[in-house]
Amino acid sequence: MQWLRQRVEAVVDVRGTSDAARLGRWLLALQGLLVAATGWWVAGADRASLSSAVLGVLTAGCATATTWLPWDRWRTRMLVVYPAAGLVMLAVLGTVAPSVGSAYTGFLTLWFMYVGLVGRVHAGLLLMLPAAGVWVVLQGSLGPEKIVRLALAGLVWGVLAEVLALATSASKVRTEGLAHQAETDPLTGLPNRRALEASMSRLSGGDVVVVVDLDHFKQVNDGGGHAFGDQVLVDFAQTLSGCVRGSDLVARYGGEEFVLVLPQVSSHGLGAASVMARLRGQWSLLHPDITWSAGVSCHEQGNEPRTTLREADRALYRAKAAGRDRVVAASEARELVGVATADRG
């Protein structure tokens, strides 16, 4: 039972297009297998049982075949293929095996649940008209009693899809908000160490990592108080953010230490040099009595990202050992720091 519960939880855990496709695939295959397995019992020994069995097996096979489609690269609207396929299968079933069709109208409700879970609000309303048509085909006729039943079914479908879509949307907003909080430094508003590690995993050859640290920050705290020290950190974070390009990342690594990830758009690393030069000029105007030091490392293709970060951190320690208020580059990044970085070593 534990294994079954884990499998079901994995199926219904809808976090992205791939997960939603897995749920749709599971529902479509379930529909096909149930129709194939029970059609003989509903229809007896007539030809309808054979038709339902063949149709059910084909549906389950088609659902399984969609496993190899690149759902992770497709948008959510592509998921319409699953409820559309489910409705088409039911319509065909009601046409070729009318004696069994009415037994499977419950699948229509399942597809509205699916649309509510994975689609946008009001997406279920777009499914209402084709679903009503399929319901009529499955019933085989439409009298006053069935019109009332169809109206009630339509009401249930619409409400079910809307409520699920609203609940899912609210849950996604809460989840995204919590994820943002978990990856954001509360003081500076910058990405934190957790977000930095995720970004570092995507480093490419030639990308530059800079570790920047405010010099003698304990003295800043002791002299001006912790409130002043916090404001200095906020000012430094804002200055860093104003010195980088839109594709760059600025993160607070911890304490008074910050990390910049600079994807390189040129072969000479001029982006890193210009960022360091702008930072030195702008910060000296804001807090001329507070200096900073930095270590720079260039990522080499095939190296571990943490190796690149460690090299930048070692370069920072060399900058501090040499007297602070300077930029020092790791050996593989010497060409990235020159006169433009105001390297005083």
Which key features would you list for this structure?
single chain, 345 residues, alpha+beta, Alpha-Beta Plaits, 2 domains, 5-stranded mixed beta sheet, 14 helices, 5 strands, disordered C terminus, Rev_trsase/Diguanyl_cyclase, GGDEF_dom, transmembrane helix, membrane
Write the layout of secondary structure elements.
Layout: H1 2-12, H2 17-43, H3 47-65, H4 81-96, H5 98-101, H6 106-118, H7 123-126, H8 128-139, H9 144-182, H10 193-200, E1 208-214, H11 217-224, H12 226-243, E2 249-254, E3 257-262, H13 270-286, E4 292-298, H14 305-321, E5 327-329
Parallel strand pairs: 4-5
Antiparallel strand pairs: 1-3, 1-4, 2-3
Q: How would you describe this protein?
A:
This protein has helices spanning 2-12, 17-43, 47-65, 81-96, 98-101, 106-118, 123-126, 128-139, 144-182, 193-200, 217-224, 226-243, 270-286, 305-321; strands at 208-214, 249-254, 257-262, 292-298, 327-329. The protein contains 14 helices and five strands. A five-stranded mixed beta sheet has the order 2-3-1-4-5, with helices on both faces. The chain folds into two domains: 2-182, no CATH class; 193-341, Reverse transcriptase/Diguanylate cyclase domain (Alpha-Beta Plaits, 2-Layer Sandwich). Helix 2 (17-43) runs parallel beside helix 4 (81-96), helix 4 packs parallel to helix 8 (128-139) and helix 8 packs across helix 9. Strand 2 (249-254) and strand 3 form a beta hairpin. Mean pLDDT is 86; it is low at 338-345. The relative contact order is 0.08. Helices cover 62% and strands 8% of the residues. With 345 residues, the protein is α+β, with helices and mostly antiparallel strands.
